[in-house]
Here is the input.
Amino acid sequence: MQPRKRVMLLNPPQDKSGEAILEREVDLVRISNPDRETLLRAVKGVHGIIARGTKVTAELLAQADVLEVVATPSAGYDHIDIDACSERGIPVVNNAGLNAVSVAEHTIGLMVGLAKAIPLTDHLLRREGWKSRIPYSWEQIGFEIDGRTIGIVGVGNVGSRLAQRVRAAFNMTVLGYDPYVSREKMQEYGATKVEHLDDMLPQVDFLSIHAPHTKETHHIIGAPQLAKMKRTAYLINCARGPLVDEQALVDALRTKAIAGAALDVFEPEPSADDNPLYQMANVIVTPHLAGVTAQATKRMAIGAAEQTLQVLRGERPPRLVNPEVWNQFLERRRA
Here is the structure.
């Protein structure tokens, strides 16, 4: 009888649904917030890693003597050195799409919060009482979303769901920028494809970012892009912090180049407690929780577990980040 393989859970998720699936076939090694030396020792003899937040580096991979798969419960995988995994023929799997509904809904919540100044007025009422209403009772403090224009950068799992929902709920005009999604596919989502990002920026009332963080998308929104937006426009980022040049955004908000922003992600994370964005009344901030709902976390825990076991069995998983290594991986298994 073959000995059971071992899977390391780096910062195990609170939802244990995935662990129950894994334990049917493998032994588990659970490690939370390990220091460098502990992690380098623990990875020896481990066949799979499911990493939540903790970085999987080339140094760690070099110590992994029998590693066959690296998984992340999340859609994002920027904490994993993909190039180093590929060089070693190690498949990497993520959970793209499994928290897409949660992130799309969170984005809509932020958009409504910006348009109706909900966080600001909530804060004023709690701090100043009913008198806080007087300065605004006969003045404009919010605006209607109905019929406005939203631009979506990255029309994939999240962006496509966002497009469908805002069009149906708010009768919004939806523009999409994504070089990897066809015009026809965007039309299915209710979006109009824009070939060049700079052409979209001056048209939108809301700009919502939903692309993965790659070398191509790093600081895709910076000072030049912010300068092309309307002064009445708002930026929303529920993807990854480094897609937006954070200092450029702070400058744009301070100079009123744009009207405001809502951010669930920051550059870097964890964000500093004295981040100036936290002090701006026209900014809504949440601590990278857009995709964290009971339903999404359960789906992601199960998805990471199932795909890890598929790779360990030699079965091709549905969400391979580096599919080019699959044949090499199979050859290594047969050797």
Summary: DSSP finds 13 helices and twelve strands in the chain. The first helix runs from residue 17 to 22.
